[in-house]
Amino acid sequence: xxxxxxxxxxxxxxxxxxxxxxxxxxxxxxxxxxxxxxxxxxxxxxxxxxxxxxxxxxxxxxxxxxxxxxxxxxxxxxxxxxxxxxxxxxxxxxxxxxxxxxxxxxxxxxxxxxxxxxxxxxxxxxxxxxxxxxxxxxxxxxxxxxxxxxxxxxxxxxxxxxxxxxxxxxxxxxxxxxxxxxxxxxxxxxxxxxxxxxxxxxxxxxxxxxxxxxxxxxxxxxxxxxxxxxxxxxxxxxxxxxxxxxxxxxxxx
Amino acid sequence: xxxxxxxxxxxxxxxxxxxxxxxxxxxxxxxxxxxxxxxxxxxxxxxxxxxxxxxxxxxxxxxxxxxxxxxxxxxxxxxxxxxxxxxxxxxxxxxxxxxxxxxxxxxxxxxxxxxxxxxxxxxxxxxxxxxxxxxxxxxxxxxxxxxxxxxxxxxxxxxxxxxxxxxxxxxxxxxxxxxxxxxxxxxxxxxxxxxxxxxxxxxxxxxxxxxxxxxxxxxxxxxxxxxxxxxxxxxxxxxxxxxxxxxxxxxxx
Lengths: 253, 253
Known about the structure:
The structure is a homodimer. The first copy, chain A, has helices at 10-21, 34-44, 71-77, 133-144, 155-185, 194-203, 209-212, 216-219, 222-231, 235-252, and strands at 2-6, 25-30, 47-49, 61-64, 84-87, 104-109, 126-130, 150-152. By secondary structure, the first copy, chain A, is of the alpha/beta class.
């Protein structure tokens, strides 16, 4: 499949790499920042461009993977092309494209991507949605070359899935950050927490998270919680500790 | 080693099982609830007791693994024995034992334990502290039969490690619970989040969590965050979302 990537961020980098590895032809990579366009284009054998007007009209698929805030402006600025336009955003409806291109859709790989870390695309669930059957078939064909884990999901459901993913990934990672600040300050290696982190994640693969809950908050062990609050360095940390602990306790009732 | 377990909860169950598997002799299991004492005693070839006065005075080691709140009362009620008294709590100082037994310490396995889920004890970091060298050697000897991952840690540091563990495990698991509530309500299988959950945990094994952070809050993508707030079912969920998002953004600056 001939594909143009609009955007060269974390998600675009991984998705374009996976498409290339699956034998697709990455025609162009557009980024407002030429440096980023060149970087990803070099990795995928594509042409780098940094002006929307330079985008080739002849590709079969245009994958928009830019910041959510920027997407409406990028769509406005796109030249007319053949082919299907899709975005990769969890929170945005595919209808954003409707006024500019009737053939549109979404391909949403549910994973956290950092440029410097490899991921195995074949384990990633990919959620697709198309404005008509032809689009859906095209996305199905593309996704099928990347992963066996393909799902059809409406935009209405997808935005909730994205919200759930923020809790299960972004908020979780922030808890790791806060834990690492505590250990760093005490000159304890963060590495000693790793078996706990991996077991906590692995545990919910075979029991519901509510049943997996342990710790002082679920037992409502007031003394331990008071003691923890006294160890925390500032009001913000104390407020977060109290709010999450209260929420844990309420969800255990 | 001849060991008495005081307590038959999640941690005691796993630790007693691991001690037994390593060839130690579990003499007795005490629990206030006879049913729990019998359950763990049967698993470990021990005698079950539910009165502190029934505890044998002849063991080498007494491992107290009860709720933190209850520990002072259990210590008060313990009959005089030979041997070393230790607890397994992250937050409590070993000095709790000092008035009753000069030979005391702590053995703190850093892991989340649920009775119904197996864990591989050899991967668990165990933190020990003893009131004198003889005690420390005894704990070192015991821990050495369970895991190669042994650390000496003072009570002052251990309480911070326990606090960090609450973030890295208990708070993380609550984020999974909140995510599962969102997906359940929308009739999306929680299983589709599993590759994301496992990658998020695995990511911090090779990059610092601050560098691993992704998502709308670190980008300070206001529209996505506003949209997410509009999807959340109540004020408590919105307050938590806002507080964690603000904290993510502040920690990224």
